[in-house]
User: Fold this.
Amino acid sequence: MADVTQLLDAAAAGDPKAADELLPLVYGELRRLAAARLAGEAPGQSLEATALVHEAYLRLVGIEQPQNWNGRGHFFAAAAEAMRRILVECARRKGRERHGGGRQRVDLDAAAPSLAAEPPDDLLDVDEALTRLEAVDRTAAQLVKLRFFAGLSMTEAADALGLTLRTAERNWTYARTWLYRELSQDS
Assistant:
């Protein structure tokens, strides 16, 4: 089997066979990342890990203009960003009146007068705060995307960004503190 980086380069060059060979090599890891991200979502999420992986993969490889990937880390960073955008789009769509925005999901078997409201989905708040962080410190924002949306470990995220582990840990501490402050002010 060919190396992921070689297949990424071949797919970027327009080789359709390389894109077909790439999917089985990265699918397991992408699915694991998607499942980890969806585990933190609010109950009632209609998007499943498989659908999230397929949509992200199509956005990465199935586009008309080929992408040049600087290796495996760059590809998975782009996959994390694609998954983030898909989840944000779904959250925004669900918030629209046309798609049931403001309505609560009710389990008919357990329906009772004292139904508790579903916890609010803060994904949009996190996305807005992350966009503001990106304007202040792009590296810290990218680290959050890799850790939060892709579920990468600190070591994997540091490697993907080309940082030392210690620098990534400092950026992670800064980003968490910055986002906590921003999200606390929003509420």
Summary: The CA atoms of residues 158 and 167 lie 8 Å apart. Helices lie at 4-12, 16-39, 49-61, 72-95, 123-136, 138-149, 154-161, 165-186. The radius of gyration is 18 Å.
